[in-house]
Amino acid sequence: xxxxxxxxxxxxxxxxxxxxxxxxxxxxxxxxxxxxxxxxxxxxxxxxxxxxxxxxxxxxxxxxxxxxxxxxxxxxxxxxxxxxxxxxxxxxxxxxxxxxxxxxxxxxxxxxxxxxxxxxxxxxxxxxxxxxxxxxxxxxxxxxxxxxxxxxxxxxxxxxxxxxxxxxxxxxxxxxxxxxxxxxxxxxxxxxxxxxxxxxxxxxxxxxxxxxxxxxx
Length: 217
Hints:
Largest sheet: 8 strands, mixed
Distance between the termini: 38 Å
Order of helices and strands: EHEEHEHEHEHEEEHHEH
CATH topology: Spore Coat Polysaccharide Biosynthesis Protein SpsA, Chain A
CATH class: Alpha Beta
């Protein structure tokens, strides 16, 4: 069974920009802030490329030119870049656009502001998905509360592994955050497995500048 990685990197960056302005800093997209001698998005991409996957797709939108200028030359041979059109869309649309540019059976769905999620954790998610009784009715997801077999999809989001075509059916014609869509999938009888994080930093997305500082520490 083939698997692609879809990395969404299309957001408005509004909370980070607000924090930077309040601190009197130059405005810099959070995805190209320095991180582990690279940038945030490069670290996320490298973690994905270190997996045994068939392809890696990065979905751009807001600030696409700024992000591509920073990283495109380093990844043009290994990553497929696509751009939302229009750009002002919800996360579900970005993910759908990435999935629709893939032909793999399964997708590991990641947001670009998750540079601390390790290859080890991603591999656990893939392993649980592929070894489940019915991979095409299973979502393997980084836990937020409980681990193992979950009894709710409340509070869940990326990263997760899902059957690509089935997931696309839920995302099609939606323009929303992912949690309401994941709850619909759960209510339709899909099995959700919560994967335990390697460390607490894996559970933190970079939304605010303080999040970024916490991950640097």
